[in-house]
Amino acid sequence: MKYEITYQKNSKLYKEIIEKKELRKINKNIIEIKKLESKTFNLFKKKITLQTAYYFFLELNLMLKAKIHIKEALELLLKNKKDKNIKEFISVLLENINCGKGIDFNSLSFSLDSSVKNFFKIANSKGNIYLTVNALTNFLKFNLKIKKELIKAFSYPFILLITLFFCIFSIFYIVLPSFELFLFQEGVNKNLATLLLFKLKDFLKNYFMHLNIIFSLSFIVVYIFYKLNKRCAYLFDKIILQNIPIFSSLVLNLQMYRLFIILNILQKENYEFHSCLNSLSSLIKNKYLLDKITQIENLLKSGKSISYSFSSTKIFDDVVLNLIQTGENSNCLKKATLEIEKIYKNSYKRKIKSLCFWIQPFVFIIILGLILWIIFAIFVPIWSISEIIKY
What we know:
GO cellular component, one term: plasma membrane
Keywords: Cell membrane, Membrane, Transmembrane, Transmembrane helix
Radius of gyration: 28 Å
Strand order of the largest sheet: 2-1-3
Number of helices: 13
Transmembrane segments: 154-176, 207-226, 355-383
CATH class of the largest domain: Mainly Alpha
Membrane topology: Multi-pass membrane protein
CATH architecture of the largest domain: Up-down Bundle
Distance between the termini: 84 Å
Pfam families: T2SSF
CATH topology of the largest domain: Receptor-associated Protein
Shape: elongated
Structural class: mainly alpha
Helix content: over 70%
Number of strands: 5
Strand content: 5-15%
CATH superfamily of the largest domain: Type II secretion system (T2SS), domain F
């Protein structure tokens, strides 16, 4: 069993993950000890989709706004719902409320957006379930919107990529075997394109399964290390956000857009800025970005200004930092963060359009290149034979 401890050192707050056996040995000024849930895979969890979760919390939010008690609202929803998984989920929530545990569920039993569990933690710690459910509903709506936008933006490029792989498969497994015997007869002049094409075909034929196994195993190993090792997860998330050309810029803008959406949702529900940052830490999935937010939180607790704390992370551009400084100095931080949200939203949409714009011609160029390669590798030798026969 692992625990996350928060301790104070040199007037600063730090967080550390330790084993259960190390708890008694530590000699630190401990502020908080938090038990960490064990990681499991989603194979046997009851699946609740993002859309199902959103509509459930939308209905619950409307009932709470109508001044219906949380327990009564859940009982009404339990009677009206037909989906087996969501009914079990509501039953668990009701059971925990009746037992005095607050609104909560076991994340090992249900597979749904991790933000739900984290918002419940906020509700139980802050004591205002109505504001938290409203904030959660808005956040799930945002997640659903982003998901639909990504599907819409990348559906056509994805179809093009599938077409490309289908073309490659057809060329190497259907077209080339039909011409192989003819092209490798004596008297046929084989050019460099022909030799390279058939060498590539032989390589794929002999090592295709090996490549698939290596790729699959690599993916599984990386996934396991990401899930179970915090350092690997941090390094991987840092690479995703900073070191991949074009893609990193898009992901960073999406993460920042998501970050300020959450911040503004919480501020609209009358949470203080410092309290919002504390709640924000539990809602961020990217470990590298989470480390930066924790850094901001620690600097604020040690008495530093908001603008200084944000600038010290070195992940925000000058425009964003200037807006934060202006908002802090003029006591209009809510307006500043709303403007920052718009900036990241527009930047994210521009980058999505730009990436989709460049993917399409890139795939077309590859397909065109394959067609030209086949013409030079197969049809040019055939035409040369027809010329010899003609004369």
